Amino acid sequence: MSDAIPAELIEALREVELPTLGHFLEEGFCTPRMVPINAGAQMVGPARTLDLREPDALAVNRALHGLNPGDVLVIRVASGIHAPVGAVTAAAAIAQGAAGIVVDGPVTDVCALHDVQDRLPVFATGLIARTTKRTGRLGDDVLDCAVDIDGVMVSPGDLVLGDRQGVLVLPPAGPGDEILQAALASDRGESALLARIAAGEDLRELLPG
């Protein structure tokens, strides 16, 4: 696991919109398959990972036991057809102070996930009624290991960001101060630019071509 991520970096990343970072970055974005299941606040936090090679609910429980406040639980579902997250899992993650959950696979109990959206943003590739089982077949080697999430490699301690536009994975140091400051400046200037466009100013002056 990486060293603790500075609180100032977490707070700065909460202020910048993911599409704005998309103006400056090309790598680390999950595909449009990865969607917000509820409409929570912007998610930012270090990854705690689970490689769910089999649909073992007990392995999910162990991952929940290891969460620290502010962590994002990131789960790869090898089967792609079993939901490891639902009402009870979400409640447990909230009790541990998790910042959110990202599942490369489906989730369930969508109404319950909507009910807790202000406390736990959840991202997944869809919904399903088939869930994990208490098989106990997986060992601890599936916890805190590198996982492929929708084509993006996530290591424990990586920064995981999510909003209504999708999910972005960054190294623990973030996008770099130059990019972060440029993105923040872009967001702060956007409302004025939109106002000038709405006022009918010449687009050739406002939007370089």
UniProtKB/TrEMBL annotation:
Transmembrane segments: none
Domain of life: Bacteria
Reactions catalysed, as given in the entry: oxaloacetate + H(+) = pyruvate + CO2; 4-hydroxy-4-methyl-2-oxoglutarate = 2 pyruvate
Species this chain originates from: Brevibacterium aurantiacum
Annotated keywords: Magnesium, Metal-binding, Methyltransferase, Transferase
Matches recorded under PANTHER family: 4-HYDROXY-4-METHYL-2-OXOGLUTARATE ALDOLASE 3-RELATED
EC code: 4.1.1.112, 4.1.3.17
Protein name: Putative 4-hydroxy-4-methyl-2-oxoglutarate aldolase
GO biological process, one term: methylation
Binding-site positions, Mg(2+): D109
Described purpose of this protein according to its UniProt entry: Catalyzes the aldol cleavage of 4-hydroxy-4-methyl-2-oxoglutarate (HMG) into 2 molecules of pyruvate. Also contains a secondary oxaloacetate (OAA) decarboxylase activity due to the common pyruvate enolate transition state formed following C-C bond cleavage in the retro-aldol and decarboxylation reactions.
GO molecular function: 4-hydroxy-4-methyl-2-oxoglutarate aldolase activity; metal ion binding; methyltransferase activity; oxaloacetate decarboxylase activity
Family statement: Belongs to the class II aldolase/RraA-like family.
InterPro entries: RraA/RraA-like, RraA/RraA-like_sf
